[in-house]
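Please decode residue identities from the backbone states below.
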């Protein structure tokens, strides 16, 4: 849109990862060197973490472009998978059609493939992006795969990349065996003020700006103030500021255009956003320490009364079994139908391979991060999720309204789903 005005050959601040635009800061160069070492050394994992928007995916794409020809790559970015689904996704990346196979068949096929490639002088590399979403069971499956050997040498190289929560998971006692297999671990932080200015110049130069800076000094300073050096935020703000300049037919982005973009994005200085997140986190910590629930489920079935279930940090199993944390009495509900994992920041709903599935706001899901007011349908049960983080749980008393609203908005779908499953397996 604005390329002609600024004499550019392409937009410099697109959000989609593009290896040619990779800005090789010292930390990005070091992270790439760690990943490259995984190709030459066959033992252990390489773990790369970084906050949202720090450039992990762009770095990975650049690394992939530089891989030697004897490396066979499996790149997985959809990570909300069960262990079997993960193995299937891995084999699909390697060129197989493994659907309908049992787990033992998947593992046998994969092991034979890895040994065959090793015998032919090939190196197999798995890169898992968004690895913070991997369940502990999938992480354990990956650990076991890393032990496949041929002639006393490991045949699989593994890079796990994800948000900081991945590091927290690996540090948990349950993941000690996997953590001990980690050979290199690196965390990508945000860019400094100087690096932010260099980043802007770098992307403009790649896009064809030459010596034309386009952003004046004050505008660049403000970019750092409002983005904190997060590459994705830099791209968003700079692109918006260039659009503002384009609207006024100005060839230089000044403080005026930059602040107009900030107002349109409704941003505050980055440090204020960080402090707000810290306050929210501390509030969650206090609630946990005082025993106040982080979330609540308001459960109703048909015209029966509403039952409340509080969600403290941890896992809650929903199902027909008497051993479930939240018992849902219905023959169309599996014994262990679903689970909700709650921490200080979120609650994650996961289908435990149930016979009749789960619906959230009328859409069938397998894994879903719950938001306040989400309506979960399991058989004839209507479940309204309430996020209690940040306010007094005693204020949350509108359960009757929740039940009525749930029935009005999803009742038809819920009933049809349940009725269609009357003849489902009762021993699911």
């Amino acid at each position: 849109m604005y390329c002609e005005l600024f004499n550019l050959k392409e937009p410099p601040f697109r959000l989609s990862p593009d290896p040619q635009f990779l800005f090789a800061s010292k930390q990005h160069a070091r992270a790439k060197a760690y990943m490259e070492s995984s190709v030459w050394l066959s033992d252990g994992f390489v773990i790369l973490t970084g906050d949202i928007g720090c450039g992990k995916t762009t770095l990975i794409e650049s690394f992939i472009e530089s891989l030697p020809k004897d490396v066979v790559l499996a790149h997985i970015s959809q990570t909300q998978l069960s262990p079997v689904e993960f193995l299937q996704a891995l084999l699909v990346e390697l060129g197989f059609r493994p659907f309908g196979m049992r787990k033992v068949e998947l593992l046998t096929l994969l092991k034979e493939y890895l040994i065959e490639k090793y015998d032919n002088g090939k190196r197999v590399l798995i890169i898992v992006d968004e690895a913070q979403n991997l369940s502990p069971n999938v992480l354990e499956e990956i650990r076991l795969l890393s032990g496949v050997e041929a002639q006393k040498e490991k045949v699989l190289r593994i890079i796990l990349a994800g948000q900081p929560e991945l590091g927290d998971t690996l540090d948990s006692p349950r993941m000690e065996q996997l953590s001990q297999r980690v050979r290199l671990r690196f965390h990508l932080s945000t860019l400094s003020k100087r690096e932010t200015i260099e980043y802007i110049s770098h992307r403009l130069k790649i896009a064809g700006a030459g010596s034309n800076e386009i952003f004046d000094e004050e505008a660049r300073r403000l970019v750092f103030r409002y983005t904190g050096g997060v590459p994705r935020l830099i791209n968003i703000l700079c692109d918006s500021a260039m659009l503002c300049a384009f609207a006024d037919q100005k060839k230089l982005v000044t403080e005026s255009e930059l602040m107009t973009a900030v107002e349109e994005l409704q941003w505050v200085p980055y440090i204020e956003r960080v402090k707000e997140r810290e306050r929210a986190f501390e509030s969650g910590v206090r609630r946990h320490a005082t025993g106040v629930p982080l979330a609540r489920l308001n459960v109703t079935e048909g015209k029966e009364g509403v039952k409340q279930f509080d969600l403290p940090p941890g896992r809650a199993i929903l199902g027909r079994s008497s051993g479930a944390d939240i018992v849902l009495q219905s023959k169309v509900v599996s014994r262990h139908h679903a689970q909700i994992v709650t921490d200080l920041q979120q609650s994650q709903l996961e289908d435990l391979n149930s016979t009749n599935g789960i619906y959230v706001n009328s859409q069938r899901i397998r894994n879903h991060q719950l938001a306040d007011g989400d309506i979960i349908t399991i058989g004839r049960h209507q479940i309204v999720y309430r996020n209690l983080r940040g306010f007094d749980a005693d204020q949350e008393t509108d359960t009757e309204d929740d039940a009525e609203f749930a029935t009005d908005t999803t009742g038809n779908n819920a009933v049809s789903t349940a009725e269609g499953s009357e003849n489902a397996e009762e021993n699911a």
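Observation: Residues 379 and 418 are 5 Å apart (CA to CA).
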